[in-house]
Amino acid sequence: MRQVINGYGSDTTAATFAYLTGGNQFQLAHLYLIGDPDNPLSFWLTDWESPLWWPVWGSKAWQPATISRGTVTSKIGLDSPSLDITYSPQQVSYGASIPTASVWQLAQKGYYDNWPVRVWSAYILPGGDLMTMGCSTLFGGVVGKTSTSRKSVVFTIDSFLY
Length: 162
Prior knowledge:
Elements: H1 13-21, E1 27-34, E2 43-46, E3 63-64, E4 66-69, E5 82-88, H2 103-108, E6 116-125, E7 129-148, E8 153-159
Parallel strand pairs: 2-3
Antiparallel strand pairs: 1-2, 1-6, 4-5, 5-8, 6-7, 7-8
């Protein structure tokens, strides 16, 4: 079992394991941090239907977004895993500078290349409580390339081992 960290920064792996072996179930979500925690242009996203609060990596709430991702597969040898994250941001108008540019503009210009990306599995108790049990690391890497379509931006994430 992966290490689970609750919203207060404590290791809750044993408590999470005990909860699961007691016949209980979690609701699962994923947290996506694209960029550095201190970068104001970073994405704090979740596939949950409402904002989630897990302040281990910063003081921002994880905002709901339309996200789909590929599967994370383990590989043996010199080949490192990668992950595709498809993000459908809200439609915004184009801007003339970096702070006002849309996600599509920045992706087309390669602005997100080499940005760090971290993905967590969130173990949510009934009622939407994420702080008690917390999250475990699912994947980490950097943006290798981005591609855009009419409704989405696809981030191809290369593992930190790449």
